């Protein structure tokens, strides 16, 4: 089995960002695309609503920019917003060329309108846009002779010249755990791209799939990159609460069609928080649910649409109806148990317009990056657009700097001589659970200084324990994810502690008002520890 691979570009992640970049690059470069699980996994696969872009003559880039800025709580970077929005139409045209089928009405593509958008501008493939996009791009990638796809390959850490003790720091590859063989292989490339998605799995409840552990952010941080605005986690107000229902969203349309949020005693409560009631913006509804859950000490609240005619409910929400019925909940007759859930990571690895990070040769694109687009809150459906736009601009930058790879002998093979098989895997599952629980309780939708300090204290202890464990035992997917989750949780806590105001998605009872200036929270690593 080959232990050392060479490519012009190594792309870690097979979501919208990674595949788009691979397809652009494949015209001129040999590319490896890695996914730590199946290729069809990650948030892209789950995306339902669609992609925001100015496609209608009554709409304008000005209006899309304005909507993005106002959702972002004055913290979005105007240049990033303009750059992204102005490349919307060509990104969609490119997807259509690749063969993605978008829903059409009589004479054109059907566009929907979502919360925060002043115009109809969401192009979609029924209610499964991510699936349509990702499966088409995977087909194209499989057909390309210049792209090699690797499933079940987990990036462990980046390899930089600094790490190798060489001058002129640059990223030259990554150590990758091949889950099929259990061995760590070297993937060497002069251009390495982190397209690893978000970090919502740092929270107990999330709409994301299990792999959303912020691996790219943690690897980049360990290698010496800055990260920005990690305190802004978007929470979706209503995720199904059921032991067997992992990550199932109950769309906002249920509230739009008259669904009422109720307490365990059946009483409605949203009117106490906002005069728009159930139709208040996402963050207000999520905060209200969180407040009531904490006040009552209960595990979930309920969303009730059963007062509507059964046929109406079944025809408007067929997927939700069927999924809930499978779990024994008939939503035409009874309320749906719901909790808010971590949904989107607005912050990430600091990049420029070309996806470049602080380390030469290392790029970050998609949800793992911090481009400045989302500010303090993401406008719905701007995230897939960001993946497409920055994947293209990063690939153009790679084209301009294609260089010869380093000599194979420079990178040492992974050394496993000092580690043994673990006999205490319970530590991993326990710590994993503990992080996600205290992040939910103390660093969730509503924060206070005291809660953040508690969380900081716990993460410091866990960090120590996990580092020790990592240096003694053989690595596994679970251990790698736990190690990354601990880094990401620490970055979120530290960023939240630094923001002494309430802005966008960051709400703290100790500083409930906006601060005088809109500033990013940028963290810089002070030591480049490998472990
Ligand atoms: C339920 C849901 C609905 C959504 N709906 C919409 C929507 O309608 N419109 C919209 O714009 N956005 C939506 N979003 C957000 C959007 O889907 C994501 O932001 C976007 O898909 C992220 O794409 P990505 O390519 O950056 O990462 P992902 O699609 O998450 O892909 C990450 C990839 O990285 C790989 N990976 C991660 N770590 C490693 C590692 N260590 N080694 C190797 N591989 C690794 C994973 O295996 C995966 O292949 C939704 C999100 C969710 C969860």
Q: What's the arrangement of secondary structure elements?
A:
Layout: E1 4-6, E2 9-12, H1 16-25, E3 31-34, H2 43-46, E4 51-52, H3 61-71, H4 78-86, H5 88-98, E5 111-112, E6 122-123, H6 129-143, E7 147-150, E8 153-160, E9 171-178, E10 183-188, E11 191-194, H7 215-223, E12 227-228, E13 233-240, H8 253-256, E14 260-262, H9 282-296, E15 301-304, H10 310-316, H11 318-326, E16 336-345, E17 348-350, E18 362-364, E19 369-370, H12 382-400, H13 426-442, H14 449-472, H15 477-498, E20 522-523
Parallel strand pairs: 1-10, 2-3, 2-11, 3-7, 11-18, 17-19
Antiparallel strand pairs: 4-6, 5-6, 8-9, 9-10, 12-17, 12-20, 13-16, 14-15, 15-16
Helix pairs in contact: 1-6, 1-12, 3-4, 7-15, 13-14, 13-15, 14-15
Structure description:
The chain is of the alpha/beta class. It folds into three domains: 4-231 and 346-400, FAD/NAD(P)-binding domain (3-Layer(bba) Sandwich), CATH 3.50.50; 236-342, Succinate dehydrogenase/fumarate reductase flavoprotein, catalytic domain (Flavocytochrome C3, Chain A, domain 1, Alpha-Beta Complex); 426-511, Up-down Bundle (Methane Monooxygenase Hydroxylase, Chain G, domain 1). 35% of the residues lie in helices and 16% in strands. The chain has 15 helices and 20 strands. The protein has helices spanning 16-25, 43-46, 61-71, 78-86, 88-98, 129-143, 215-223, 253-256, 282-296, 310-316, 318-326, 382-400, 426-442, 449-472, 477-498; strands spanning 4-6, 9-12, 31-34, 51-52, 111-112, 122-123, 147-150, 153-160, 171-178, 183-188, 191-194, 227-228, 233-240, 260-262, 301-304, 336-345, 348-350, 362-364, 369-370, 522-523. It has a five-stranded parallel sheet. Strands 1-10-9-8 form a four-stranded mixed sheet. Strand 9 and strand 10 form a beta hairpin. Helix 1 (16-25) runs parallel beside helix 6, helix 1 packs parallel to helix 12 (382-400) and helix 13 (426-442) runs antiparallel to helix 14. 49% of the residues are buried. The mean pLDDT is 93. The structure holds flavin-adenine dinucleotide (FAD).
């Amino acid at each position: 089995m080959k232990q050392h691979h060479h490519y012009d570009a190594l792309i870690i992640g097979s979501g919208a960002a990674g595949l788009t970049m691979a397809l652009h690059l494949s015209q001129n470069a040999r590319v490896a695309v890695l996914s730590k699980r199946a290729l069809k996994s990650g948030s892209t696969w789950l995306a339902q609503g669609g992609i925001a872009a100015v496609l209608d003559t009554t709409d304008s880039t000005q209006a899309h920019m304005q909507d993005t800025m106002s959702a972002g709580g004055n913290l979005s970077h105007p240049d990033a917003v303009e750059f992204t929005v102005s490349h919307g139409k060509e990104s969609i045209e490119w997807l259509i060329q690749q063969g993605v089928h978008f829903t059409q009405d009589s004479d054109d593509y059907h566009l929907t309108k979502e919360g925060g958008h002043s115009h109809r501008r969401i192009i979609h493939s029924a209610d499964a846009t991510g699936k349509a996009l990702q499966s088409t791009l995977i087909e194209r990638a499989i057909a390309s002779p210049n792209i090699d796809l690797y499933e079940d390959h987990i990036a462990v850490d980046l390899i930089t010249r600094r790490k190798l003790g060489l001058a002129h720091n640059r990223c030259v590859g990554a150590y990758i755990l091949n889950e099929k063989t259990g061995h760590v292989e070297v993937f060497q490339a002069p251009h390495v791209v982190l397209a690893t998605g978000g970090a919502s799995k740092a929270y107990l409840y999330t709409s994301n799939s299990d792999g959303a552990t912020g691996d790219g952010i943690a690897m980049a941080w360990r290698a010496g990159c800055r990260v920005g605005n990690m305190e802004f986690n978007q929470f979706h107000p209503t995720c199904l609460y059921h032991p067997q229902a992992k990550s199932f969203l109950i769309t906002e349309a249920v509230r739009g069609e008259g669904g009422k949020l109720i307490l365990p005693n059946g009483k409605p409560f949203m009117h106490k928080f906002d005069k728009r009631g159930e139709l208040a913006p996402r963050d207000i509804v999520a905060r209200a649910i969180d407040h009531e859950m904490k006040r009552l000490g209960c595990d979930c609240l309920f969303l009730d649409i059963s007062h509507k005619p059964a046929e109406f409910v079944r025809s408007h929400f067929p997927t939700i109806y069927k999924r809930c019925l499978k779990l024994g909940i008939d939503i035409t007759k009874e309320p749906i148990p719901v909790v808010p859930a971590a949904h989107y990571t607005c912050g990430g690895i600091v990049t420029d317009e070309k996806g470049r990070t602080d380390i030469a040769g290392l790029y970050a694109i998609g949800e793992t990056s911090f481009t400045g687009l989302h500010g303090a809150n993401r406008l719905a459906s701007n995230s897939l657009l960001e993946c497409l736009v920055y994947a293209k601009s990063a690939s153009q930058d790679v084209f301009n700097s294609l260089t010869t790879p380093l000599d194979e002998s420079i990178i040492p093979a992974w050394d496993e001589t000092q580690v043994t098989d673990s006999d205490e895997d319970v530590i991993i599952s326990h710590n994993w659970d503990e992080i996600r629980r205290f992040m939910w309780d103390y660093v969730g939708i509503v924060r206070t200084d005291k809660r953040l300090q508690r969380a900081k204290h716990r993460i410091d202890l866990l960090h120590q324990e996990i580092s020790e464990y990592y240096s003694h035992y053989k690595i596994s997917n679970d251990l790698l994810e736990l190690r990354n989750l601990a880094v990401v949780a620490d970055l979120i806590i530290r960023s939240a502690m630094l923001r002494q105001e309430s802005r966008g998605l960051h709400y703290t009872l100790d500083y409930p008002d906006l601060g005088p200036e809109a500033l990013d929270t940028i963290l810089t690593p002070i030591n480049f520890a490998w472990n």
